[in-house]
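FAQ: What does a multi-protein file look like?

Like this. Sequence, then tokens, then the next protein.
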Amino acid sequence: MDKEIKLVQDWDKTFPKSEKVKHEKVTFKTQYGLTLAADLYIPKNAEGKLPAIAVSGPFGAVKEQCSGLYAQTMAERGFITIAFDPSFTGESSGEPRRTASPDINTEDFLAAVDYLSMRNDVDAGRIAIIGICGWGGIALNAAAQDPRIKATAAITMYDMSRVSGNGYFDADDSEEKRYSARKAWAEARTADPKNRTFTMAGGVVDPLPEDAPQFVKDYHAYYKTPRGYHKRSGNSNDGWRTTGCQAYANTRFLYYINEIRSAVLIVHGEKAHSRYFGESAFRYMMDGKAEGYDFARKPNPVPANKQLLIIPGASHCDLYDGGGKGMIPWDNIEEFLKTNLKYDTMKIRFINAVCILALILASACKSANASQLKDKEMMITEKKNIGSKLALYPMPVTVVGAEVNGKVNWLLVAHVGIIGHDRILVSMSDKHYTNQGIIESKKLSVNLVDQKMLSKADYVGSVSGASVDKSGVFDFHWGKNGSPVIDASQLVMECNVVDIYKSDGFDNFICSIANTYAAPEVLDDNGRLDYTQLKPVLFEFPTYSYIATGEIIGKCLKLDKEPSMCVKEPMTADGIVRLSKIEVYPQYLDEYMKYATEVGEISLRTEPGVLTMYAVGEKENPCKITILETYASHEAYEKHIASEHFQKYKQGTLHMVKSLVLSDQTPLNPANRIKNFIQ
């Protein structure tokens, strides 16, 4: 029987207590009968059912350390959260102490979801988990197991099964070295019962050797100093049992993460020694294969909601508590969680809307009489019905490049479309020789065709690569992503295949854009594509004809007025006036301004709730930029950060930003609506 546990009620955390949340100690049971201790954080003045998050980690730490900091901070941002001690650690039950197991630890997360889902103040359809360090990998394993988990954030993650079996950087990945470790564990398991004790492996090394690796120094700076030391933390004291992590060394427990359908965010520091764990896990989760994973499986069925975020300049331990440098990307984590915990609400709203529409239509149908129907038929007949013809053409002519059986192959393709700001669809007959190379490599290039290239492009579309070597038709070079890029093409997109679906007779490749190459002559003075200079050829499918392009007849959303801003909403009581102070690395300044200008222009044109985006740079240091952002309401702000154009800006510029400070202001005249532009 599990022993009753006693919880410390005093505030004994390594971080200050927040006045914005309510805190209490709670317990809950796992399916193995163990009792887990947790700190519960609830936003003050919370009403109704809220989204919830369970947090744990790092591996060998306790809830009084950084998992508690994450839980309290996310509670400040509107979530009900718990930070829990895993089984056999901290204030949680389980004997012998400081023992770890892949199945028991995964169950710890699932039991935390059980507890949250049964609370009356939690929306059971909006539960997320955050795992830190080794618990980042455990969080991924839990997400693969439990569809109730709608979003998972893995912070500075370790794959504990990989490092336990292979050593750091896979340096001990050999049968001989694993056998040596197994012998040591076997000897310990024989000796401990005889000595009636459990030998401990030791926590973070102390005193610190002068020649210690940097990451060991980082661990010491956190666990062995007032910054992160806690008396119940294994890492701060005598560590795990010598055989406490043996189960991880003989397990590869992330086998099914390629099947995770829910949202996942993996966050790592640029300088973290553990970065390879997160990047490999992300690639395996997306593609079903990656370096460090000996098994190969299918690509992820829902790749669009997966993110990998690298924090410039951050080490592994910087993401524990910010490292005194504000390294934890709180806004990114909050945005990710809020975006992906809206699913059920949106689904309900959609269903309700469909039901209402159905009722309206049913009512309308009942009231229609024969005369009305006859009039409607007469109106329709003013247009000629030409049958179920495809009528969205013409489309741009492209040449798709790929490596097939060790040789470059080219194919004329006109079935190319845009399905998002960073996704395109390349549709090709499943009989094409080129397809097998794309399926194997998951890479291709899309080369736009102008009139100078047209004759060669037409040729590669008329002969099969299975019988004709087409590698020499175009001069080419290899792009940075490993795809062949045609030298003569003035605009080329180098792409990764993120998903494939089959339709009747076609392989449809959904691709993310890795690199875009543009000839200088097709760029304007601002570095933007000028299609009047490029003049791509179009393909009209019904008649199999090529059509020329080039004339601009107007600017989208600017035909009726200048400067083309949508009608703005009035400032409300919860409107936001914010100064965003951004410092950009000098080498990225020009590129950053392109992104910032684009997102500002689109936001002002298309979002009624975005009232102002006005940017200025310091005269002495143009890399220091201040943007005045004004939003009509908090809802308008939420819509803005969830928009595709903002996400494109955020993902594209993250590595360019040295620092970001947000400062909210009090509007003195809320009714004022100033028309402003980003400059």
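And here is the next protein:
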Amino acid sequence: MKKLKQIIILFVIAGCLGAFFYFDLGQYQSLEYIKEQQANFSEFYKENTLFAISLYMAVYIVSTGLSLPGAAFLTLLGGALFGLLVGTIVVSFASTIGATLAFLLSRLLLRDYVQNKLGSYLKPFNDGIKKDGGFYLFTLRLIPAVPFFVINLVMGLTPIKAVTFYGVSQLGMLAGTVVFVNAGTQLAQLESLSGIVSPEIIFSFILLGIFPFLARKFLSFYKGRRVMSKFKKPKSFAYNMVVIGAGSAGLVTSYIGAATKGKVALIEKHKMGGDCLNTGCVPSKALIRSAKFMADVKKCQKLGFKSAHIEFDFADVMERVQRVIRTVEPHDSIERYTSLGVECYVGEAKIISPYEVMVNGDTLTTRNIVVATGARPSIPPIEGIENVEYLTSDTIWNIREQPKNLLVLGGGPIGSELAQAFSRLGSNVTQVERNERLVSKEDPEISQMVLESFQDDGINVLVGYTPKKFFKRNGRNFLECENNGNGVEIEFDTLLIALGRTANTMGFGLQELGVKLTAQKTIKVDEYMKTNFPNIYACGDVVGPYQFTHIAAHQAWYCAVNSMLSPFCRFKVDYSTVPWSTFTDPEVARSGINEIEAKEQGIPYEVTTYKIDDLDRAITDEAAHGIVKVLTVPGRDKIIGVTIAGLHAGDIISEYVAAMKNGFGMNKILSTIHIYPTLAEANKFAAGNWKKNNVTKKALAWGERINRWRRTYA
């Protein structure tokens, strides 16, 4: 029924538009016609005042609501008919009501059409509305260079409320309305529209439009000066930048700062390299590699071997992990960064003012401070957890005895990677996840692939189970969970908690100084990675929202450059093509949005898939399972999201990341030569499927006709 109503309304609109052009109604919207008929209009208005106003408003509302040309001429007519005061009031309400009607038509009826035709405008509009709300719309209304009908249509696709749109539009269009209505009162002297909107008037509009932003900038500057006024500024600084934390974010920040010939101090209280080197990416991937070898041995018959047997000591595997860490360690060492020009301190940092950081009893004066203190594993407030010895992703690398019955709490990337690795090494693993799916941020079919792989590996996966309490019985450890209202007891001897990470914001002076935090207890930063203090920046896991090593390094560049170049130049951090990978088997990699997010955000999309079980190289490697899933703009080859599940997905997705970053579409990927046989060919085949899906029947019919003609005539 709703669809039928929409179709009827669209037909009515189309009929009105057709009538406008068929009867050439535009001829009546000219300056000459208005001047010729001014006397008649005035006479009609005197005799039928209310009717004339109502009729005028109805015509104006319909014209504006349907985005017909001629709004300027109607406004002039309003001035000529009603005078300055009445004309301004009538035109102001008529234009705003008409604009709101166009706004609602776009939102309710023309969403897909406008998205397809004007989609390129949508992101900056959305960003502007998100950041500045009504101020953004107000500015657009005051700039004559921006077509009003485009504003009406595109705003209908943004989150702005209709009430806000109406109020801001009426206010924002008022200045232009007054100018045109006033010109209409002087219609006899008016020769062309160019005389109405002079460069001086346009400049005045622009100044009026940007005034809220200038005011906001001034307010921000004032707040910064006010917060800094509480502290005495040194006459000179020992350092251009002091960086707290030598993880990925801190290392990159200090390196860039030193590379730009700044004097940089780097403070680390524990180990250089942070979590990534010592407890995160490096050790986990080393363990996953060993576990993958065990999995290949167990599946040796698929590779043509009747049987294979391996003897190993779990302690040796964990020692190999440490050997890998020691091999990578020089990349992040004090010696290396000292050679790069960074002064490294080992000790606990304490921020005592925006200009001073204390370490080992010494006070370092600095123009800028960068906080890159990372995050730690989150420990849930589950009843009885204090009575259970548990491991986290930070402490599990210290064990040398293999867990017999391992309980993993958490079905995210960390929990899933470690659960599969320990299972393949011979532990009996039970994985508990509160959500209904593993890796729940991914699309359901991707989660299902991971689940089936885990079950094949012998992992007891319990999704939809809520942990309630830990307890002991007869000296054995148990976890009580709830599933669909039923209590379930799970026995274990080793517990691994992998329920996300908490930002390290305590204990080094942030609270005492007054640095603001978010609701998630991360440091609150703006789009330039700056805190509420104008010279204190933050990056990495302590900021979020992405807790990945490569994103920490990405943010670090902006921290370093913006702090070193401030106030002369600064750059907004770019999150447009953030890629990540979960290193399970199958590996899951993603960049951009997936289907879940597209539906949640109301973004139109087309899905193209390619199943990797058809790929020659995957077949030869006994890895013929997985999928390439690409989301594109309907009717276009523009890529808005990619998910790949399969062997080396984190490597082969790079082509799509580069394409999205540089504006390349599926056609470019299809025309690119890919080496045979490689896993990267999956990208080309996915692009080929997109091409086949987007060739119209009409085009194929014409191709058939042309080829038939060429066969018929020699």
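Q: Is there any per-entry metadata?
A: Some entries carry free-text notes. For the entry above: The first strand starts at residue 239 and ends at 244.
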